[in-house]
Amino acid sequence: MGTLGFWRLAQADPEWIAAVDPDGTEHRAGDLLARSNRLVHGLRELGLQPGDGICGLVPNGADGLVLYLAALQAGWYYTPINWHLTGPEIGYIVSDSEAKAYFVHPRFLQEGVRGAEAIEPHRRFLLGDGKQDGFRPAAELTDGQPDTAPPDRTAGATMHYTSGTTGRPKGVRRTLSGLDPDDGAELMTFLLGLFGITAGPPNAHLVTSPSYHTAVTQFGGSALHMGHTLVYMDKWDAEDTLRLCERYRVTNSHLVPTHFKRLLALPEPTRAGYDLSSLKWMIHAAAPCPVPVKWAMFEWWGDCIYEYYAATEGGGTLATPEGWKSHPGTVGSAWPISELLIADDQGEPVPTGSPGTIYMKMMGVPFEYKGDPAKTAANRLKDYFTVGDIGYLDEDGFLFLCDRKADMIISGGTNIYPAEIENELMVHPKVADVAVFGIPDDDWGEQIKAVVEPAPGIAPGPELAAELIASLEGRLARMKWPKSVDFIAEMPREPNGKLLKRKLRAPYWEGHDRAI
Questions:
Q1: Structural domain that includes position 393
Q2: Given CA atoms 236, 237, 243, 246 in this order, what sign does their dihedral have?
Q3: Do both 97 and 206 map to the same domain?
Q4: Where in this chain does the record put each AMP-dependent synthetase/ligase domain (predicted)?
Q5: What distance in Å separates the CA atoms of residue 456 and residue 461, rounded to the nearest whole number?
Q6: DSSP code at position 209
């Protein structure tokens, strides 16, 4: 131990450009170090202790990075909040995470203010120079604080919220290690080491997606702790990706298959117009990538495309370019510190090539769903856990996905849980019954479809569909809204009341080669 970790690297080379904001503003490592140190001193004066939590409703860029770096050196849990959420959804996370400080960027103030009711006014902070009733300027915390390293540093962690199948998201919380923050950060870089990623400049990591996603924070944070420059995108754009890769000589990034589809759709002259020779480790995950799409990316970018399958809870697989090319369609084989088990509904292992529920385990750090021991236990099989996906292992130990957890919708790489949407639509007086599921979408992988049984005497039709969708305003993030509503006279249910959702989904997936 002893060569990696942001705080060590920043002291050794304060001039290293550690981050570039979406507007092109460059941040020296020494400045980010000083900002994160001042924030720790200020929050400790507010009474924060190791094990406490802070929340940030912030866009991609240095502001969120400073919150992350402060928490990770003071032994706190940092929860970045999805900025598409509505006030009540934000407030739930602030309250459930037991945050002792809540930071809001001016851009997300409208819903951020609504979410602030979950925390006392003296613990709410507005970033930037603006003013807002009921919030303190974040500068109040840091003005006059020393730039020097705080005493008694200890490793903190991120606590991301993962959408719950029952509608309410759950915080995935790991026990704090008690390590020195740089040593803890160095351990984190093991993940990037699996892909063969090397430390130090002149590496640059392109942050293509919102930092509230677990993988985005994990990969970006690990790259930073290896001495890479983080180049942040605000809103993903295909040509912008190529421009930034050329401009900052990007070596690695984290993408989803939707990105590949958009990149391949660019006109040939545009695709050929950028120098992408710096690319070495372009990693993707979050949804199955159609085999032809991935072959096309290999032809264009060469053998720099890596894939993995994993979950917020830990454990996973890795497909190298060679591994994938010899087993097209695979999501890879198990990490050295991870094990896979494919089991039937009774929890018994199934033979090679037979589909079953995918269970994983990762040596080392156990996790729990915060405040939900029942959910933690329900997803376990001995010391393995599952997110409910279905797949099989071939004779070489490569994993193939067959179907996502029956109900989960993956749109543009984001997991969307129908139960949450169904719960909101069910309360509408004109709805007798409702089912929500994903149907094929060439751009996004899946789009959200609602099938509604209208209440007695209510006429189905476009007006009703529009009314139902509009009723979600302010209650559910727009990315969770159904794209369309179909009507049905009677919902197919078993005598025990179980909805036969597959029966509803099947017609929409006819002619498609996979039901994901």
A1: 337-405
A2: positive
A3: no
A4: 7-364
A5: 14
A6: S
Task: Give yes or no for a contact between 356 and 382, defined as CB atoms under 8 angstroms apart.
Answer: no
Give the position of tokens 């979406």: 22
> How many other C-beta atoms can be found within 10 angstroms of the C-beta atom of residue 388?
15
User: Going by C-beta distance under 8 Å and a sequence separation of 6 or more, which residues neighbour residue 507?
Assistant: none
pLDDT in tens, 349-390: 999 999 888 999 876 656 677 888 877 777 778 778 888 888
Task: Give me the residues paired with residue 449 across strands.
Answer: 437, 484
For 193, the enclosing helix (H) or strand (E) is: helix 190-194
- Is 28 in the same domain as 79? yes
Give a yes or no: residue 158 inside a domain. Answer: yes
Beta bridge pairs of residue 177: none
**Cβ pair 438, 407 in contact under 8 A:** no
In terms of domains, do 413 and 401 share one?
no
Would you give the end-to-end CA distance of the chain in angstroms?
42
Output the pTM of the full model. Answer: 0.82
CB proximity list for 176: less than 8 A, separation 6 or greater:
50, 51, 75, 154, 155, 156, 157
The C-alpha angle with vertex 239 and arms to 275 and 297, in degrees rounded to 5, equals 65
Instruction: Please tell me the total count of domains within the chain.
Output: 4
